[in-house]
Design brief:
Blueprint lengths: L2 H5 L6 E4 L3 E5 L9 E5 L11 H22 L3 E5 L9 E7 L4 E3 L2 E3 L17 H14 L2
Antiparallel strand pairs: 1-2, 2-3, 3-5, 4-5, 6-7
Length: 141
């Protein structure tokens, strides 16, 4: 695995591994269910990815969007390719919500809705993070 993947907590944050990509639960949640979709290659530019990698990315996008729609009724999805600090190809996947989302007895709000996300982290305790990770792993089997 490349250094960018390790930066986001791999293997402890791994939701699902694919041939060309990994899906990780983002350690600092922007909105509830924020993920990292990271290429396993050493590519640092989107143009370096091949057709097979992009085809698999399309499959992953469908799976994670459906997951967040089903689990939390997410309404929109932001994909952010921010590869300045962590250079290998990866996307911050941010589900967006117009209403509060409840999980593990707590309410979570998308404070930037309906504007662009400012990438502020929400407070998700360790127990809630682990239960969210377990739920996503189970649902994406």
């Amino acid at each position: 695995m490349n250094e960018t993947i390790k930066t986001f907590g791999y293997p402890e944050t791994l939701v699902k591994e694919y041939k060309h990509w990994v899906v990780l639960l983002r350690p600092k949640q922007i909105t509830l269910g924020s993920l990292i979709i990271a290429a396993k290659s050493d590519a640092v530019h989107l143009g370096e990815l091949n057709e097979d990698q992009w085809a698999e990315f399309a499959q992953i996008s469908k799976e994670v969007e459906n997951l967040l729609k089903d689990v939390f009724n997410a309404e929109k999805f932001n994909y952010l390719a921010l590869m300045m600090k962590d250079p290998n190809v990866h996307f911050h996947f941010v589900p967006r919500y117009s209403k509060e989302v409840s999980f593990n007895g707590k309410a979570f709000k998308d404070i930037d809705w309906p504007s662009k996300t400012e990438l502020n982290s929400i407070d998700v305790d360790e127990k809630t993070f682990k239960e969210l990770l377990d739920l996503f792993i189970e649902r994406l089997k």
